């Protein structure tokens, strides 16, 4: 993985860089094939690395490649990985059984998420690897696993990870990572309250809370699965439209917006057209932040 060492060319008084790499940018289900080769077909997984701290945001199918890259980069050194799971729908956890570092003793993986409505976080991961679904059980993994059900901001050395609840069927969270004066906000699978439930004062206030959580972010990774035309047929499924996301990014004053969680029905050409429409809307409305559609294996250094 080229140029991912956060400590490269950093002085003793300068904070380490924050390196973000997208390993999976697709939503709902993996979509391999010739139509998704440019933007990628792996489901949600983003790495944030800074000063030796390794964060992992969701573990969809992109987790497999991330795990192999970590093993190669660290060449047998013990890994201490902090995995933050936005919610436990399949496309956000289905890569975990294929995450190679989990199979090696000496590695440590701390898994953070919200407690499920009817079962603990650990039980959800255990159930995914039940013998009915997978040949290796969670208890067979050699790495040390720890499950943390989120209550407050997590501090990992100089890195702070805050969370808020967002609007998606079941329990879901958005994460904000602050480190070295840089901020990354990860908000996936969120349907604006006003869009779903009506634009009254209560729902507008709930939407404002989500927007304020991303205030001034250097990188805002935001799910934008539907077009305005598609949304009426998907209402209540827990996802945003591109226009809603652009407006939220503008109000939050972010520097970069990464459109994320691409719909499985949107091939590369469709995403090209959507991105062009986003840029046209931004020009029309005087929006000056950078906007791009996240792609598998894309890397950004903050």
Explain the overall architecture:
The protein has 302 residues and is an alpha/beta fold. 24% of the residues lie in helices and 25% in strands. The chain has a single domain, classed as Ribonuclease Z/Hydroxyacylglutathione hydrolase-like (Metallo-beta-lactamase, Chain A), CATH 3.60.15.10. The protein has helices spanning 63-74, 90-93, 121-128, 193-197, 201-213, 242-252, 268-285; strands at 19-24, 45-50, 53-57, 80-84, 108-113, 144-149, 154-156, 159-165, 173-179, 182-187, 219-223, 256-260, 290-293, 299-301. The strands form two sheets. A seven-stranded mixed β-sheet has the order 6-5-4-3-2-1-14. The chain is globular and about 55 Å long. Mean pLDDT is 94; it is low at 6-11.
Can you tag this structure with a few keywords?
302 residues, alpha/beta, Metallo-beta-lactamase, Chain A, seven-stranded mixed sheet, 14 strands, globular
Report strand order across the widest sheet: 6-5-4-3-2-1-14
Tell me the series of helices and strands, N- to C-terminal.
EEEHEHEHEEEEEHHEHEHEE
The total of beta strands comes to: 14
Radius of gyration: 19 Å
CATH architectural grouping: 4-Layer Sandwich
- Helix % is 10-25%
Overall number of domains: 1
Question: What proportion strand?
Answer: 15-25%
Mean pLDDT: 94
Shape annotation: globular
End-to-end distance: 16 Å
- The CATH superfamily is Ribonuclease Z/Hydroxyacylglutathione hydrolase-like
Class by alpha and beta content: alpha/beta
CATH class: Alpha Beta
Q: How large is the count of helical segments?
A: 7
The CATH topology assignment is Metallo-beta-lactamase, Chain A
Note the quaternary state here: single chain
The low-confidence parts are 6-11
Report the sheet with the most strands, covering strand number, pairing sense and barrel closure.
7 strands, mixed
């Amino acid at each position: 993985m080229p140029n991912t060492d956060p400590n490269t060319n950093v002085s003793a008084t300068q904070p380490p860089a924050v390196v973000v790499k997208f390993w999976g940018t697709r939503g709902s289900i993996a979509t391999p094939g010739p139509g998704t080769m440019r933007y990628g077909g792996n489901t949600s997984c983003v790495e944030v690395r800074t000063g030796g701290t390794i964060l992992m945001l969701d573990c969809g199918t992109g987790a497999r490649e991330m795990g192999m890259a970590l093993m190669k980069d660290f060449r047998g050194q013990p890994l201490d990985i902090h995995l933050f799971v936005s919610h436990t729908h399949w496309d956000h956890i289905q890569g975990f059984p294929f995450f190679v570092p989990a199979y090696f003793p000496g590695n440590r993986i701390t898994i953070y998420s919200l407690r499920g409505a009817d079962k603990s976080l650990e039980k959800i991961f255990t159930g995914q690897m039940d013998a009915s679904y997978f040949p290796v059980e969670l208890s067979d993994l050699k790495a040390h696993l720890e499950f943390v059900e989120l209550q407050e901001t997590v501090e990992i050395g100089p890195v702070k990870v805050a969370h808020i609840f967002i609007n998606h069927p079941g329990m879901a969270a958005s994460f904000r990572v602050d480190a070295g004066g840089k901020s990354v906000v990860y908000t996936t699978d969120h349907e604006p309250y006003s869009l779903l439930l009506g634009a009254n004062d209560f729902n507008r206030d709930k939407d404002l809370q989500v927007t304020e959580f991303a205030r001034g972010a250097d990188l805002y990774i935001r799910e934008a699965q539907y077009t305005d035309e598609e949304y009426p047929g998907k209402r209540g499924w827990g996802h945003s439209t591109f226009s809603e996301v652009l407006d939220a990014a503008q109000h939050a004053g972010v520097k970069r917006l990464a459109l994320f969680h691409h719909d499985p029905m949107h091939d590369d050409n469709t995403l090209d057209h959507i991105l062009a429409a986003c840029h046209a809307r931004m020009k029309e409305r005087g929006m000056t932040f950078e906007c791009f559609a996240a792609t598998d294996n894309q890397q950004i250094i903050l």
